[in-house]
Each structure stands twice: as structure tokens, then as C-alpha cells.
Amino acid sequence: MLSHKGYIGHVEFDEEAEIFHGEVINTRDVITFQGDSIKTIKKALVDSVEDYLAFCEERGESPERPFSGRFNVRIEPELHREAYIAAKQAGISLNSLIVEAIKHETKTMHTAR
Questions:
Q1: Closest Cα to residue 67, out of 8, 4, 15, 112?
Q2: Alpha-carbon gap, residue 3 to 49, rounded angstroms
Q3: Which of 19, 46, 51, 59 is least enclosed by beta carbons within 10 angstroms?
Q4: pLDDT digits over 42-82, tens only?
């Protein structure tokens, strides 16, 4: 993963074309970039993010910032109840329970790679 100003770029290598191509993955707006070496792909990410920010400024629009820290989750009512009870029993908020569960799972996924 590469990043610039909080925008995270996911990069893949196309063996057939012998080129790296990437996309910013933490925004709904589409920001892509490519390069033929590590050095050029890093620069391409920076250039693409900067171009995106300049484009938004020219249009008088606010650029989409990577993640607000808020999202809605739809779960079955029974699981919602169980999570609420578990949080109450632990003496924490439902939000805190979910945050800790996500931290645990993402850490587990990163160490499994």
C-alpha cells in the first residue's frame, strides 16, 4: 500500500503489460495512477492525488476525504441484541464493543498474511 495525504493507493502489477497500476481505495471518488517502476508509481500516486485536490478546488467543491469514521452496519436483530447485552455486561458502549471487535479482526487479518 502507498499513501499520500491520507489517501491510500492499492497497487497491482500487470505482468503482460509490465506496468504497475493503482487506485485510491479509501474514497468513493475514482483516483487511479500507473507507473513502470516503484519510483514512478509512488510519484504517480502523489501526482494523481494532487491533481484530484486541484480539480476539486477549481470546481469549488470539497474533495472527498478518506473516511469520516462513521458508517452504518445492518445486522440481524438477534445479533444486535446480543451485542448490546455483551457491551452492557462489559460496562462499555455498543460502539466501543464494535470498535474493539473490528480492531481485533483487522489485526488478526494483517498478521495472517
A1: 8
A2: 10
A3: 59
A4: 999 999 999 999 999 999 999 988 777 788 889 999 999 99
Residue 24 contacts residue 41 (beta carbons within 8 Å): no
Gap between the terminal Cα atoms of the chain: 14
Query: Residue 100 pLDDT more than 80?
Result: yes
Any idea which residue has 469520516 for its cell? 68
Residues 9 and 49 both lie in one domain: yes
113 falls in which pLDDT band (50, 70, 90)?
low
The whole-angstrom separation of Cα 7 and Cα 91 is 35
Say yes or no: 10 and 55 in one domain: yes
Q: Are 64 and 47 in contact (CB under 8 A)?
A: no
- 34 and 6, same domain (yes or no): yes
Q: Is 83 helix (H, G, I), strand (E, B) or coil?
A: helix
